[in-house]
Amino acid sequence: MRSALGGGLGLRLELHFSAMQKTMDPYDAPESTPRQHPSCSLKEYFLAATPLQRRLESVRKQATSFVPTPPRRRIPQRSQLQEDVDPQKVAFLLHKQWTLYSLTPLYKFSYTNLKEYSRLLSAFITAEKQKGLAVEVGEDCNIKVVFSTLLGMKGTQSDPEAVLVQILSKPQLPSEDREAKALWTGWFCCVFGDGLLETVSEDFTCLPLFLANGAESNTAIIGTWFQKTFDCYFSPLAINAFNLSWMAAMWTACKMDRYVAATEFLWSVPCSPQSLDISYAIHPEDAKALWDSVHRTPGEVTQEEVDLFMDCLSSHFYRHFRIHLSATRLVRVSTSVASAHTDGKIKIICHKYLIGVLAYLTELAIFQIE
Amino acid sequence: MHAVMMPQKTGKNYQAQNRPSQGSSSYQTNLSACEVKQKPSDSKENNPMQDDEHADDQDGDVLQIAMEYFEKDPIRSLRSKDKILEKHLITVENVAWKNGLAPETIDILLNVALSGRFGNAVNTRILKCLIPATLISEDSVVKAVSWLCVGKCSGSTKVLFYRWLIAMFDFIDHKEQINLLYGFFFASLQDDVLCPYVCHLLYLLTKKENVKPFRVRKLLDLQAKMGMQPHLQALLSVYKFFVPTLISVSLPVRKKIYFKNSENLWKTALLAVRQRNQGLCPEPRKLMLGPANIRPLKRKWNSHSIIPVLNSSSHTTECGKKEMNLSEYLSSSGSLPLEQLQRFPQLLENIHCLELPSQMGSVLNNSLLLHYINCIRDESVLLRLYHWLSQTLQEECVWYKVNNYENGKEFASFLDTIIRAESFLHEGFYSCEAFLYKSLPLWDGFCCRSQVLQLVSWIPFNNFSEMKPLLFDHLAHLFFTSTIYFKCSIIESLKELLQNWLLWLSKDIHVKPVTDSPLDTSLCESMNSVFKLVHYVGWLSTIGMRLESNSTFLMHFILDFFETACDIYLIYNLPLVVLFPRAIFYSALFTLDASILNQLCYIMHRYHKNLTAAKKNELIQKAKSKLSFSSKTYKEFNCCLTTMVGCLWTSKPFKKGIRFSPETLEKLGVEEHKRSLNLVYHSSLLGYAVSFLLQETPEEKTINLSSIQVLYVQQ
């Protein structure tokens, strides 16, 4: 490991004084790590094991493990995508910045009613935009809402199909034949969400991860409609530094044919009056070499390895710049696989590891709603 | 000894103990409370604002005077205008924008504005401030419309009146009478200025039976005369919607805006009224209306309140049936929409065909639906509520994720709503339990203190050992590091928790058949949990007393707890007797406060009763009961009792329990240590002894306490 560092990582340091003064630190969220738990044997005084009780059991279990016993996660494998996945749709999801939300199970959502939902949602959007005016369902709007499924975008067979919702602007003239422009896109998915699926009854559809791209006002309207229609609840999904480190490690561990971007970390120093950002970029191959030197268990990532990986990066940084990164806060990680920001924004770059990235995000979302 | 100490105490306590069903009786299930408050007979009464009641009273008085002025003889008020008028107008405006006006007030003012007594400017001002506190009565509107026929008001006043009517349309209590005036409104379409507003009003008012061929003809004539006006098209499209066969003209499909927005003038006021009608404290209104309102997601999304508005879920269920067309759907009458549910008998009649709300969270504000969800045991209903409540608590919690303490008040009132619902149901929500597990470790022990502690007392019954690391350990940390008042509050909420658990268990034990053997083991486990809870509080109390140097104040709360704990066997009919820790016993016994000693004696008395009863039952049904009380408990109790009797009564302390060697006692320098703790000399009773003697022999200069005992023996 030393030798890898001694060889000199292609290291670049940039310091930014961000103009915006950050007064608080909202993302030191208490969750230490999301963990999935198999439903455990029920207490004897629970005579009937209903989903609600199972749910509560898992919450209790989760709350007990504030300090995680070293969790293990699989390194994302290439091409875990199901065969029937539409490559065009996948390409459409890549290279876009998505804002993440967690979503509680949808009540009485039905895959056979997608057309009807399109109609109702577009009426709702029109109504919201012209508040106070009556609107007829299905008519009179120059936008179009399309619900569709993203077939194959899942981890296991039991995961429900992902759902894509798009708001398209209708071409002004009917004769115009050019393709409608997407004003807003959002999708719901569940990748390896077994833990959650076990705790709900069949009236519910579990799509705990919601990703949105487009104006936030639109996200708000659509979110409101979903909340009203399916009695679910959206919460913004922030990614704390702990989970960002995990992402950094797991994504560095991915085997890549070709690196398209440097591995970059952004650290934020909470100081007044202006906060200081430190950008720390490494050549992706150096990062991989460092990872390989700390990596022990094949195919898996452990908590120790993640800690060690991050510690090595900070100690290297300290030797050069005499700054303890451990005293700062990790706010962004970008690699050739994907990049994630603590605000809950993600951009997935590599097609091969899409499912792997989504699996981890699903895990975070499930942790948040449990 | 009991005979001596008891009488003062028993009366009060038996009453209290025989009703173990929760102290906070104000929330108790009460059918009269089920009727949803809707009729605003008096705006002041219905006004949810409670903070500055005094200021409101003043406002009310001034408003009263203003209203008398407006009601008075028209001619005189016309003369004495300007200053007085101005003053009264300002009063009305202030009250209207702050709290809204009562239906009667609106009635009077509408009358004034449309009767043409004052000039246009005044009429405009009056109309602009006609903001209802909650609702507007239909009669007022009908009367107002009748003024329009007299022709006393100007065109601009009429326009403003129509705009007001459109904006306030949703707040009018009934619309049947107004609908009868349909013909009158329709005739007003002739007026070019009024036409757009009348169209809008008709658009809101039209029912299927209002659509008549002659009206269609008239509209088409108007359209031919004035051209394609959006407002006319809107009305036509409604007509076409109801009776498609009558209208053959094609209407443009893509039309963005039919009407100019009539609401603008009252926009902020309307929000406030809606919020009031949802029964919320109007406090957050300021926050909501403020321009810079940086809030996490929820604020931007669900603008009005944390708790969703009650809506029937019909469209979720109906949209599956594809053939169902909208008009059919509107006229369908299979089930009772929730919006119409207002009284308990209605709930009983319609319980089979009630539509559940589209967002389960809305039941929190509705006591009738709380009844409903309490009696149906539909898992998905509970799951929906569980998910919603868990997430909302997590998102809104001011210390859990984001330190946005400026919303503390709103969060506290949300917690109050939850606690009210829990007390109403006599049952805790699982979401709140999960929330406490997650958030209590991060709680500062200060923010929303009373609410959090109340949530603690409503935690559903559970295995104590499992909960200890999640909750009680954190609570202990807070207990040890906080002020005495906080310690007292914690002990008090733990007492309520114990009561709730005991109630739940005592109810549960009667439901289940006792013969099954696995159930017996579960009962054993339950009793073990209760035992551990009492033990835990004993532990907290012991250390707490040491930290607070035997504070009498804290001791009262601790003994209150044990008053509940000592009666588990007799009052709750559960096979358990747990004694208090020795340390508590001794510090209560050697207290300086007579009331503590009194309470201690009462508790000892109840322990005695419980243990005797348990022993008796044990002898009777030895075979049946598998739960036997360990002889250790009896020994322990007997030891306490002999110590107590030795100290207070027989003047032979320290024979059992605490023992001191004669040398130690000598060192202490207490003369006659044997007597010094008895009823006469006891530190907490000395004052009584002296005053007793002074009463008996007021002239005596030196008091001889030992004479009491002599007196007593003589008698």
What's the short version?
With 370 residues, chain A is α+β, with helices and mostly antiparallel strands. Among the domains of chain A are: 87-130 and 139-236; 239-342, no CATH class. Chain A is built from ten helices and 16 strands.
Overview of this structure, please?
The complex is a heterodimer of chains A (about 375) and B (about 725). Chain A is of the alpha+beta class and about 375 residues long. Among the domains of chain A are: about 85-130 and about 140-235; about 240-340, no CATH class. Helices cover about 30% and strands about 25% of the residues of chain A. Chain A is built from 10 helices and 16 strands. Chain A is globular and about 60 Å long. The two termini of chain A are about 40 Å apart. Among the domains of chain B are: about 55-265, Leucine-rich Repeat Variant (Alpha Horseshoe), CATH 1.25.10; about 340-460, no CATH class; about 685-715, no CATH class. In chain B, α14 runs antiparallel to α15 (about 230-240), α28 (about 485-510) runs antiparallel to α29 and α29 runs antiparallel to α30. The longest helix of chain B has about 30 residues, at about 515-545. The model of chain B is unreliable at about 1-55, about 280-300, about 315-335 and about 515-520 (pLDDT under 50). The chains are: A alpha+beta (about 375), B mainly alpha (about 725). At the A-B interface, α2, α4, α6 and β10 of A face α15, α18, α19, α23 and α25 of B. Chain A: Belongs to the CENP-L/IML3 family. Chain A: This is Centromere protein L.
